[in-house]
Amino acid sequence: MSRREINSQMATAHVTLTEQESATLSAIALEIGKTPDELIHEAVAQFLLRSRQSHRATLLRQACGMWQDRTDLPELESLRSELDRF
Questions:
Q1: I need a surface site. Which of 2, 29, 57, 81 has the fewest CB within 10 A?
Q2: Which of 11, 64, 65 is closest to 37 using CA atoms?
Q3: In the predicted model, what is the mean pLDDT of the chain?
Q4: Residue 57 domain flag
């Protein structure tokens, strides 16, 4: 996929930086050979990934024990024995 194709699929967001943030971002970009836009895109992607992982972990913690008080479920042993027939 070409850079042009990738850019055509992206939304544009306006980011306001202080002069110091902008200067530092530009210096880092120059140092590692990327554009400031690429660095911002990478930072947002990392943030979103961490956010999704954190959200997933929270959901798993909330789900822990959610069936412990149910009395209408069959015993695990009976379910396993049914599956062992196959």
A1: 2
A2: 11
A3: 85
A4: yes
> Cβ neighbours of residue 39 under 8 Å, at least 6 residues apart?
25, 28, 29
Q: How large is the average pLDDT for residues 8-34?
A: 93
How many CA atoms does the CB half-sphere of 34 hold within 13 Å?
Answer: 12
Q: pTM, whole model, 2 decimals?
A: 0.56
Residues 41, 31: Cα–Cα separation, whole Å = 17
Which amino acid would we find at residue 63?
A: A
Residue 86 included in any domain? no
For 26-38, the pLDDT digits (tens) are 999 999 999 999 9
